[in-house]
Design goal:
Elements (H helix, E strand, L loop, with lengths): L4 H7 L5 H17 L4 E3 L3 E3 L9 H5 L2 H9 L15 E3 L9 H4 L3 H16 L2 E2 L20 E2 L2 H9 L10 H10 L1 E3 L13 E9 L2 H15 L4 E7 L4 H14 L17 H5 L6 E5 L1 H11 L9 E4 L6 H11 L9 E5 L2 H10 L1 H8 L2 E3 L4 H4 L9 E3 L2 H11 L3 E3 L2 H10 L8
Parallel strand pairs: 2-3, 2-5, 3-4, 7-8, 7-9, 10-11, 10-13, 11-12, 13-14
Antiparallel strand pairs: 1-6
Helix pairs in contact: 1-2, 2-8, 7-10, 9-10, 9-12, 10-17, 13-15, 13-18
The structure holds FE3-S4 cluster.
Length: 424
Amino acid sequence: MHLTDHERGMRDGDHGPAKAKAMDLLIRYGEALGAERLVETNNVAGAFNASTPSVRELVKRGFDTVFSELNLDSQETVPIPKMAASTCQLITGIDNDNWAIQGIPEELVVQQKAAEAHFGALGINMFATCTPYQVGNVPVKGEHCAWMESSAVVYCNSVLGARTNTEGKESTGAAALTGRIPYWGYHIPENRRGTHLVEVDVEVDDIMDWGLLGYWLGEIVQEDVPVLTGRLKQPSLIKLKHFGAAAASSGGVEMYHVPGVTPEARDVDEAFGGRTITERLRYGPAERRLAYDNLNCAQERDVDFVMLGCPHNAIEQVATIALAVEGKKLHPNTQMWVHTPRALREVAARNGYVKMIEDAGGVVMSDTCPAISRYAPKGTRVIATDSAKQAHYLPAILGLPVWFGTVQDCVATALTGTWQGALR
Ligand code: F3S
């Protein structure tokens, strides 16, 4: 691999043992992928906090050991300096305030808070959300990033036009310390061009429509780059957030184009950039129905847990929920957790939305989600959600059946205790 003088210096230990370990990891990783060089990055989103039971023993040996082992793949503990690149923490397993409601043991909360204090001081910004682009980390078009979290990656590439592959704990740790990441995959312009042309033949407008389209499409195109045309109403951040998360769940979509909307596709020709269309797909009423049926695996209509906010809710989504339950009470057998980044929870509290939801009997959570934490309200038997991604993962992660629908369906379910959704 070609290295600059500075990169060689880091590899050879001129800048300390942690950067040497990081460079060694990046070189091995890059060479395995066929990357010929590294690229500079000043935008890293990874997982650095130590909140799971499995790292208890590591934590006893100190946070340098935790970072060395989990973020640098090193059995040898090296002292970890401040991050070289602008770096943020993605979602965690624990809501620092609502952990008791989650059912998390207190010792893990103490462990997470200590880790946050340590790594925060090293420059890792504790956004603690899967949507860093909602709370201040908005890379510009063409910016090279090193992000984990599939729903964030597909948003970063497709909607923002910034460039990242789906990185891991180790590569983001090494990138944070060196400001480098292997130049391959979606860092290379040619790989960002469309492969599949998708003709949407049924109106796609609300959040559920975009989630269904993404869920159907991801399963078919897997890791390719779809280009969507047809009856798409102007999407918003929220709708594309749900679309990308769904496509990255049923498949591995990391990049898509909506000509006239996303930044690397002023039209269909630019989306493909001369690449041959490998397949033409049509999405109509039957495909929409198929996605809906695949996402709804529950039979029992009594619902005891409504999960909203995957990916983490925008403030407008929290407002919609708050106003829908204002002055009402949730069904006594049904709990409702609303997930939003902590920074937006603060806004929601100032707007009165948190109080409206809490007065109705719901909870506004931050920092986590049930798929990541693996915690749902004790005794949960049936779940309802407005997220295709959460509906995809929860049956496997928690072993529980899920209903999927609109946010209105889900709120009505929380108020009545029985599933109120249907494909309309
Ligand atoms: Fe975020 Fe958890 Fe969904 S990480 S995208 S809320 S599964």
